[in-house]
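Memo to structure team: turn this sequence into structure tokens by end of day. - J.P.
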Amino acid sequence: MRFDVITLFPELFEPFFRSGINRRAFESKQVDVRLWNPRDFAEGNYRRVDDRPFGGGPGMVMMAEPLWRCLRAIRADRAEPEGAPAPVVLFSPTGQRLDHAMAVGYSQSAGAVLVCGRYEGIDQRFIDACVDRQISLGDFVLSGGEIAAMALLDSVARLMPGVLGDEGSHQQDSFNPALDGLLDSPHHTRPEVWEGPQGPAAAPEVLMGGHHERIARYRREQSLALTARQRPDLLAQAREAGRLTPVDEAFLRSLKKL
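Reply from structure team:
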């Protein structure tokens, strides 16, 4: 799979590619990422890529022409088959929110061209003519699309075979179908009793008992309780899809009585 990233700040990605367990995916080219600077495709001595917005207003707008030239160079370099170009993704506050299902979809694809906007935005004519999809991280504004691009690449890389130390690790992530789209349960590790700021705090005894069925049920209940408290929308989706068992529903009813 190959992702081509259009960015004015390619240097921001270098530490990301070299750090953490996901670097395995980038070093092995399981997730092949190539960086393209639209300034390299701009004209003039100053390689200008932005200008003032028509109609006035604050800030600058990225120009369509350098982006279009950059995109054409990417298309040529990818040598894509006729009629099957990689989708062009723009990170924008107006886009669909990035979620687990979207990351899974890209992890099973041939990749995409990721466009990182800057300044006040990108000339709408480029968006209308060239962008296939817009993605957002949430209802807030970033200085540019680079952080959002790294979030997508990170979420895709960890799904690649052999990247995580435990092949089943991501199966227990929040939002995963293996958890019926619910939040993951809390985790604990040594010591068994932590001398914290509020006094001794013991790890749940059931997790240390070695009874796998009880541990599985405990984690399921913790997942249900946490989701009900923090993300009731996810619980409603799981219920609507028929993913909650009668035992799950009985546990949730018991929570309301507390």
